[in-house]
Amino acid sequence: MTSDTRTTSPISPAGRGPAFSLGALVLGGGALVLMVFLAIGFLLPSDWEVSVVREMDAGPGDIFDFLDSPEGWRSWTTWPEGGLVRSGPERGAGASISWDDPEVGRGAFDLVRSEASERVEYAVEFGQAMRASGVVFLQTEGSRTLVEWTEKGDLGWNPLMGYWALFMEKGQTQEMEKSLDRLAALAEGEGEGREEAAQRS
């Protein structure tokens, strides 16, 4: 009799094929996908910039009343509600408001430049995750005013933020357009309603 020596692959306990081959393939493929995902995230730009324009049936002075103070901004833009602290002057450059909200965390809004009835510049911080700056220009066109609002920000070097930045421009554009709608409603309002809103701002 002759012995028949054969080389066989390791068999899994269930006897269904090479041990660990399927698991290793899945884990290896998942790791590769994750590495590619993170690598692309690092390469994607983490900054964004949005510009929106709206013509309003109001004078630049009426609109400026809602731009020259943090309280004015709160009347037509979306803000956190918790832990609000005001500092600096009520209006103009140096006026500031910060928050420590349980839902959105900490942040601050600062007016950095103010030119009466012409332009306002500001800076915003959301914790350590994002910084943004913006400018609103007012241009008179007959009895109407053209409002041009530009905002840009940086989400930092976190690879996941690169993907977030891809969607930030679209989402922020929609939010800023809605905000300008609210600003127009306030600035174009007549009588006591507009005056009361301007006084609160």
> Beta-sheet strand percentage?
25-35%
CATH class label = Alpha Beta
Report the radius of gyration as a whole number of Å: 28 Å
Overall geometric form: globular
Average pLDDT across residues?
A: 78
State the major sheet. 7 strands, antiparallel
Q: Tell me the span between the first and last alpha carbons.
A: 103 Å
Total number of strands: 7
The DSSP helix count reads: 5
User: What structural category characterises the helix and strand content?
Assistant: alpha+beta
Q: Show unreliable segments.
A: 7-15, 36-44
CATH architecture: 2-Layer Sandwich
Strand order of the largest sheet: 1-7-6-5-4-3-2
CATH superfamily: START domain
DSSP helix fraction: 25-40%
In short:
The chain is an alpha+beta fold. Helices cover 35% and strands 30% of the residues. It has one domain: 2-Layer Sandwich (Alpha-D-Glucose-1,6-Bisphosphate, Chain A, domain 4), CATH 3.30.530.20.
How would you characterize the overall build of this protein?
- By secondary structure, this protein is an alpha+beta fold.
- It has a single domain, classed as 2-Layer Sandwich (Alpha-D-Glucose-1,6-Bisphosphate, Chain A, domain 4), CATH 3.30.530.
- The chain has helices at 21-43, 60-64, 70-74, 159-187, 192-200, and strands at residues 47-56, 85-87, 96-101, 105-115, 119-126, 130-141, 144-154.
- The longest helix has 29 residues, at 159-187.
- It is globular, with a radius of gyration of 28 Å.
- The model is unreliable at 7-15 and 36-44 (pLDDT under 50).
Task: Give the topology.
Layout: H1 21-43, E1 47-56, H2 60-64, H3 70-74, E2 85-87, E3 96-101, E4 105-115, E5 119-126, E6 130-141, E7 144-154, H4 159-187, H5 192-200
Antiparallel strand pairs: 1-7, 2-3, 3-4, 4-5, 5-6, 6-7
Helix pairs in contact: 1-4
